[in-house]
Amino acid sequence: MQAVRLTEWGREPALAEVERPVPRGSEVLVRVEAAGLCQSDVHVVDAAEGALPYRPPFTLGHEVAGRVAALGPDADTDTDTGTGGTAPGERVVIYGPWGCGNCTRCAAGRDNYCDHRGDLGWHGAGLGRDGGMAEYLLVPSARHLVPIGDLPATQAAPLSDAGLTSYHALAGVRHALGEGSAALVIGVGGLGHLAVQMVRATTPGRVLAVDIREEAVDLALRSGAHLGVPMGADTARVLRAETGGVGVDAVLDFVGNEATFALAVQLLRPGGELAVVGSGGGRLTVRKPGFLPAGFRLSLPFWGTRPELAEVIALARAGSLHVETEQFPLSAAPEAFGRLRRGQVRGRAVLLPD
Ligand code: NAD
Ligand code: ZN
Ligand code: ZN
User: Fold this and answer.
1) 64 C-alpha to center of ligand 2: Å?
2) In a 3-state reduction of DSSP, which class is residue 4?
3) Cα-to-chain-centroid distance, residue 209
4) Domain spanning 173-299: CATH superfamily
């Protein structure tokens, strides 16, 4: 089968012919219908030797939806227990942050915070383990599958990371977003445009958004932001004025560089929440006494939980989330990577097996 392989750090991923896997034990084989392309894939390709706890070669793709094709002899087939049992032909999205499967975190569907995350030797599907930019994906256990019914795979796949990560980041700050509050979303790409929709769908707060790209600011407005502004010298002033001078209650930062940290701490209200999702390499210095807002709280969310993925899929099926996608055949993966690198993707790039 065709697969998009990372063969060496720093080398652009390329298509290769690999063996179609056979499910053993509790494994499940999924025929891939769609696989999203994340800015994290670019970070992974560009990673320095030793920077990540895994190494090539492996197949990329950590946002995947498809149809169950075959089950290993010990796979969970009990679909009534809500623990992920499945059957051939079922349409599913893959919960990607595979953990050890044995600790209390994994037992609760919180593989993203598996107690053994530091020594697993992978971060999840397509992140050290073969992922879903391929015709088939081998999933270690049926507990990583969430049914999607008739939701299109091109919607479901991005929801498993761009959607889930945004949802989990928002879950950590939602308590700050009551009546009369305001949230700021920085970086309105694959994750950010869904974050804007989720703040609108699940809080009464106003949503402000910034991006360096004009078309991403437009996407923020189409996604429901009350105000979208380009990132520039005047941005903090414009946004503060928009909040009646008080600042915002929460910032969701999907960039994470020095400039976005500076904007976030300038705009946060006392008691404000900053969730840093983007891996932009920025540093933020904590010093007391200092200039961070009083009561400032910081979170560094990673991906999300399996129960949250089910909630995200339910929101999408209810019509509250719409992923803006640009679709490419799997064979055009190198071109899609190039577009993402050049900042030319609107929303999420999604690969479809040819
Ligand atoms: P994306 O490329 O689709 O979107 C990023 C957006 O940020 C783009 O619209 C870009 O124009 C904008 N941007 C870039 N620099 C900016 C700046 N200085 N100021 C304002 N806007 C700026 O990326 P994505 O796939 O949505 O991922 C966003 C980030 O989140 C990446 O760093 C990615 O690695 C990270 N990520 C983290 C997790 C996690 O679990 N923590 C999961 C997925 C992705
Ligand atoms: Zn990702
Ligand atoms: Zn675990």
Assistant:
1) 11
2) strand
3) 18
4) NAD(P)-binding Rossmann-like Domain (3.40.50.720)
The enclosing H or E element of 99 equals none
Distance, CA of 348 to chain centre: 11
Q: Superfamily assignment of 2-164+304-352 in CATH?
A: Medium-chain alcohol dehydrogenases, catalytic domain (3.90.180.10)
Q: Choose the residue to mutate in 123, 165, 191 for probing ligand 1, maximizing ligand atoms within 8 Å of C-beta.
A: 191
Give the span between the Cα atoms of 9 and 56, in whole angstroms. 7
pLDDT in tens, 95-132: 999 999 999 999 999 999 999 999 999 999 999 999 99
Rounded to 10 deg, the angle between the 39-46 and 333-341 helix axes is 90
- Give me the phi and psi of 269, to 5 degrees please: -70, 155
The CB of 254 under 6 Å from ligand 1? The reply is: yes
Q: Which atom of ligand 1 is nearest to the CA of 302?
A: 40
The candidate with the shortest Cα–Cα distance to 93, out of 19, 188, 158, 187, is: 158
Q: Is 186 in the pocket of ligand 1 (CB under 6 A)?
A: yes
Residues 137 and 157: their CA atoms lie apart, in Å, by 13
Residue 339: CB within 6 Å of ligand 1? no
Task: Give 51-87 pLDDT, tens digit per residue.
Answer: 999 999 999 999 999 999 999 999 999 877 666 789 9
Give yes or no for residue 160 CB within 6 A of ligand 1: no
Q: Is the peptide bond before 289 cis (omega within 30 degrees of 0)?
A: yes
| Whole-structure pTM value | 0.98
- According to DSSP, residue 161 is labeled I
The answer to whether the CB of 61 falls within 8 A of the CB of 40 is: no
- Residue 332: DSSP 8-state: G
> Can you tell me the distance from the alpha carbon of 248 to that of 178, in angstroms, rounded to the nearest whole number?
12
CA gyration radius, the chain: 20
